[in-house]
Design a protein that fits this description.
The complex is a heterodimer. Chain A is an alpha/beta fold. Chain A has two domains: about 210 residues, P-loop containing nucleotide triphosphate hydrolases (Rossmann fold); about 70 residues, Alpha-Beta Plaits (2-Layer Sandwich). Helix content of chain A is about 35%, strand content about 25%. In chain A, strand 12 and strand 13 form a beta hairpin. The longest helix of chain A is centred in the middle third of the chain and has 14 residues. Chain B is mainly α. In chain B, helix 2 runs parallel beside helix 6, helix 6 runs antiparallel to helix 8 and helix 8 runs parallel beside helix 12. The chains are: A alpha/beta, B mainly alpha. The interface between A and B is medium-sized, with 30 and 24 residues.
Chain lengths: ~325, ~260
């Protein structure tokens, strides 16, 4: 549905996108992850034909963004970073305007508006001026705008910003339900969101794609070793060296006096059983023992920091036993 | 609905929801009404004077009321129309709806045309209300309707030109105040070109400079002269300004 090939975008001297290529299949949900200024919004603006790329081609639903922008625009639902709402209109007036811009009219327009108002829970505010609505409601009106003409392709720039947790879950469910029949690209800062909703993740940094894979494979690929966190009640002085002596353990880090140890082990080797036995037989008072899986946060930090040449930092960051399952 | 109609409907809605149209409209009608009243009273005083001196008086309302009024309207429009046009594009850019508009399946020419037409309709509505004044005068006096109607044609064309300059200024910036000042400035320059033309005298350059100003073209229409040359001036000026607006809106995407 979406094919992007070798796209480069420059603003004066600054290169915002550097030979970016990716594809999105029909019915797929793709997440765009990246720090601020990485080029996420620029990519979306090129795909929606708001701005042209300097080099490379972008094709949406078989139409070239540079040559046939009208055909592309008809097939895309776009939610920009700031919800594009007119404060002086009511929700229904606004949706009516958007629908008419897309050539909807009569019964189809009415039923589409009804569908989106219900789907996004706008029923109670539909006759209020958008200027008087809260941030969360405006965001939902913006989403309704993008979905109104039932486009094949949705491009959502941070769709869950400003929503409360319950709404966030609702919107994620909504996006998941759209998958299959719609192709979706969404950008996000919230990493669990990418894991929750998307089949594929593209990590972009400094205008370049640094990784592209499923969330699970990304973390698997970047994991250089298995990590285990171990908490003991009364560690002995030689605990360090004895843990290190366990077959498969490569490194042992101590974090303070709290009795927490971080063990780095060979890939594909589970040493938990042995470590547990050792702890019990030595009478160290085993409190906790768990494997740390690398979360998307760690992957993200590692990849984007790598880019800035701070590889050593990234190792420390991923070695912190803070990784909660996403 | 065609795309242009969709834009016009939305813009009209936005205009009448905001207090700007009501404020601008009432000031415009108040000043025009007051001026008309003053010119009529002045004409009446002159009639009384002439009657005392000659026993009878023939007052030309066209000269004493309408020509003066049309000359004044020129200046009122120069101040007031930029306030109507300033929001058209500047607001879209400020509130980030500009991106939405340009990613909708609608052409830039349709956006520019729709926005211009909407503010033009607002202006026609306001101008229509001033029509009460000649209608009321017609009840109590006799005057030649022809130059009044061509005068109105002149105001309509002049207003359209002013509005198109305003649309261009609004496309140039995301600050509404700046947009208003830029269009007032551009219009004042167009006005003063007439003075510069006179200064340069009856040379080719002088005539060319005078032609660029709306003054003589508007004056012809107010005096009852409908000349193709003047109509061409207004229509080409309008087209040029809207074309430039289109280019400015298009180029804003690149930044």
């Amino acid at each position: 549905m979406i094919e992007v090939q070798q796209i480069t975008k420059r603003y004066g001297q600054h290169t915002a996108l550097d030979r970016v290529s990716f594809t999105v299949a029909k019915g797929e949900v793709l997440a765009f992850l990246g720090p601020n200024g990485a080029g996420k919004t620029t990519t979306m603006r090129i795909l929606t034909c708001f701005m042209p790329a300097n080099e490379g081609t972008a094709r949406v639903a078989g139409f070239d963004c540079a040559d046939q922008p009208m055909e592309v625009k008809r097939r895309i639902g776009y939610l920009p970073e700031t919800p594009p709402v007119y404060q002086e209109l009511t929700v229904t007036e606004y949706l009516q305007f958007v629908g008419r811009l897309h050539g909807l009219g009569g019964k189809i327009l009415t039923s589409s508006m009804q569908r989106e108002i219900e789907r996004l829970g706008l029923g109670t505010v539909q006759h209020r001026l958008i200027g008087n609505l809260s941030r969360g409601y405006r965001q939902r009106v913006g989403l309704a705008q993008a979905l109104l003409h039932d486009p094949q392709i949705l491009i959502l720039d941070e769709p869950t910003v400003g929503l409360d947790p319950k709404q966030i879950i609702e919107i994620r469910e909504l996006i998941k339900n759209l998958a299959g029949s719609h192709s979706v690209i969404l950008s996000t800062h919230i990493l669990p969101e990418a894991t929750a909703v998307c089949q594929r993740v593209v990590i972009i940094s400094g205008g370049r794609i640094v990784a592209e894979d499923t969330p699970e494979q990304l973390s698997a690929r970047l994991r250089q070793s298995e990590k285990i966190s171990l908490t003991l009640k009364s560690p002995a002085a030689d605990t360090d060296s004895r843990l290190k002596a366990v077959q498969g353990v490569q490194n042992v880090f101590t974090s303070g006096a709290s009795g927490t140890f971080l063990l780095e082990c060979e890939l594909g080797r589970d040493v938990r059983e042995e470590v547990a036995r050792l702890a019990v037989t030595s009478g160290w008072g085993l409190l906790e023992l768990k494997a740390i899986s690398m979360t998307l946060e760690d992957v993200f930090l590692q990849l984007t920091r790598h880019e800035e040449g701070l590889a050593s930092d990234a190792v420390v960051a991923s070695a912190e036993p803070a990784g909660q399952p996403a | 609905m065609t795309p242009v109609q969709v834009i016009i409907a939305k813009e009209l809605r936005s205009y009448f929801v905001s207090p700007v149209v009501y404020a601008v409209g009432s000031v415009f009608l108040l000043i025009v009404g007051l001026l008309a009243y003053l010119y009529v009273v002045f004409a009446g005083a002159q009639a009384i004077q002439l009657t005392q001196m000659q026993g009878s008086a023939q007052i030309n309302l066209n000269d004493l009321v309408f020509r003066n009024l049309f000359a004044s309207i020129r200046f009122i429009l120069l101040i007031i129309l930029p306030i109507l046009t300033m929001r058209l594009f500047a607001e879209e850019r400020k509130l980030r709806t500009f991106e939405f508009l340009l990613t909708s399946p609608i052409g830039i020419n349709e956006i520019v045309a729709g926005k211009f037409m909407s503010v033009f309709l607002v202006f026609l509505g306001l101008l229509g209300l001033t029509g009460l004044m000649p209608l009321m005068l017609a009840l109590f006096s006799d005057f030649d309707w022809y130059p009044v109607l061509t005068g109105y044609l002149g105001v309509v064309l002049l207003g359209a030109l002013f509005l198109s300059v305003g649309v261009l200024a609004s496309a140039l910036t995301e600050n509404q105040i700046v947009a208003a000042f830029v269009s007032i400035g551009l219009l004042l320059v167009l006005w003063l070109l007439a003075g510069l033309g006179t200064l340069l005298g009856d040379t080719a350059i002088g005539q060319a400079v005078s032609y660029l100003s709306f003054m003589e073209h508007y004056d012809h229409l107010v005096r009852g002269l409908v000349d193709t040359k003047d109509l061409v001036y207004f229509f080409s000026g309008l087209t040029l300004m809207l074309f430039l607006s289109h280019r400015v809106v298009d180029s804003a995407r690149w930044k």
